[in-house]
Design a protein that fits this description.
It contains nine helices and ten strands. The N terminus is likely disordered. The longest helix has 21 residues. The chain is 33% helix and 21% strand. It has one domain: Aminopeptidase (3-Layer(aba) Sandwich). The strands form two sheets. Strands 3-4-6-5-7-10-8-9 form an eight-stranded mixed β-sheet, with helices on both faces. Strands 1-2 form a two-stranded antiparallel ribbon. It has 275 residues and is α/β, with parallel strands linked by helices. It starts with a strand and ends in a 7-residue tail after the last helix. The protein is globular, with a radius of gyration of 17 Å.
């Protein structure tokens, strides 16, 4: 039985509010071992991600493959039911461009899904969490576009937030500001300050996009973390996108930030007003 580091944060001061956040971190060596499992074939990457989600405790009735038109590999979905139908979608694409091994773009993101699942399932949840490994991002966001169009109007309305991460670990965590939901952005920055993980504000501009755009087009509140700068951009879609490009300290800091952030969102999003 894998042992986890238990973390309890009580009476956290966050934007003038006092809350209790409970979560546990997957050990660093496990997080690192998962990102080292990058494979060349997109189909094999999807199957590896599915196996890792199962290993991390995704319920058998919550783990599904969603076929997507014009793509060989399906979306990989793990649903973790909470006390309510209000949903937080956590997503990262697992496919990669032909050049390189796609460690930064985006096995770095996809391989965090199992570790974040372990974090979320460690305590009772108000929200239902849906972890999605998207296929076909490099072909035009095909997996995420299919995912949102397949949702019923009611299920789409139930999504409280979509948190996306793409091309992380090439440097310190960064956040797209211009297109971020303001509440999600504020809570991320407060979280980063609380655990002393600096987050830089860095917009993609017109040079890149990611799966959050498919949700944003449906008016879902979104936020995307990345590590793209003018310097790290040259790694993407190149032979240099391999394990040597990954900075492990920054990568694990990004995981710690996301783990705390998701636990905080579960407590604070849709919170009932105090009497």
């Amino acid at each position: 039985m894998r042992q986890f580091l238990c973390v309890w944060l009580a009476a956290l001061a966050c934007a003038g509010q006092s809350v209790e956040v409970r979560y546990r971190l997957t050990p660093r060596e496990v997080v690192e071992s998962r990102v080292r499992m990058a494979l060349k074939s997109n189909v094999e990457r999807g199957e590896k991600l599915r196996a890792l989600l199962e290993e991390a405790g995704c319920p058998s009735n919550g783990l599904t493959r969603q076929p997507v038109k014009h793509v060989k590999a399906p979306n990989v979905i793990c649903t973790l039911t909470g006390e309510t139908a209000r949903t937080i979608v956590v997503g990262a694409h697992f496919d990669h461009a032909e050049a390189g091994l796609g460690v930064i773009d985006n096995w770095s993101g996809a391989s965090l899904l199992p570790s974040l699942l372990e974090c979320v399932r460690s305590a009772p949840r108000r929200h239902t969490f849906v972890f999605v490994g998207f296929t076909g991002e490099e072909d035009g966001l095909l997996g995420s576009r299919y995912y949102v169009t397949a949702l019923s109007p009611d299920n789409l309305r139930q999504i409280a937030a979509m948190i996306n991460f793409d091309s992380i670990g090439a440097g310190p965590p960064e956040v797209e500001v211009n297109k971020a939901d303001k509440e999600l952005l504020t809570r991320l920055l407060n979280t980063a300050n609380s655990i002393k993980v600096p987050v830089r504000r860095m917009d993609f501009g017109d040079i890149a996009t990611s799966d959050y755009e498919s949700f944003r087009a449906k008016r879902v509140p979104t936020l995307v973390l990345h590590s793209i700068t003018p310097e790290t951009l040259k790694l993407l879609h190149s032979p240099d996108d391999n394990m040597k490009a990954l900075r492990m300290d920054d990568y694990y800091d990004t995981y710690r930030l996301l783990a705390f952030y998701l636990a905080l969102l579960d407590v604070m999003l849709d919170a009932p007003a105090k009497q």
